[in-house]
Amino acid sequence: MSAFTIFLVLIVIVAFLLVVVIMVQNPKGGGLSSSFGGGGTQQLGGVKKTGDFLDKSTWFLATALIVLILASNLTIDSGSSVESKALDATEDTSTLPPLNTIPAGEETSGDTPE
Fold it and tell me: How far apart, in whole angstroms, are the C-alpha atoms of residue 54 and residue 20?
């Protein structure tokens, strides 16, 4: 497996986790933290300040996603790219017909289509 493939798999995993963490949060301050007692100082089952954890994990996953995308860009093989003939300045264009010629057998009328 190439390094790019490994980065691609990691990007998909981090993106999925980021979606899950964002969906768990409630934009009005409730969410997962309100279901464990509602108060910031209450503790139920060892969970305290769940909202802070979700906020920090969102920022961490977003930063990790950006870093992985930039790192994957460095690992792309430049030798495997297909070269474009449109960018090739030495291409012979003498075989192409001129743009303003009318094919034989076709006549044009003086009327222009509207």
Answer: 10
